[in-house]
Sequence to fold (92 residues):
Amino acid sequence: MPRAVLSGFVESILGRPHRRKLTANSWANLSLREDEVFGSLLENLSNKEIGIKLDITERTVKFHVSNVLNKFGVRRRTDLILHCYQQPSASP
Fold:
């Protein structure tokens, strides 16, 4: 899926007045760093952008992205975003 399309989808979800509060650890047992990467994935940041934001190498970002995807049982970032926004929300 083109990044611009995915970004538009994420922005449309996040722009909703009663958006869901996503907490990764309510679905997957993520480490602190994986949780930070998860949040960056939901912002639709690239590996390079995540690395800069978290002050880690791109290779390390790829490692954490892979772990996050595996823990959520999805193969792509798009699937992760869709999966997370389809889950019931604990708080509106």
About this structure: Residues 16-22 have pLDDT under 50 and may be disordered.
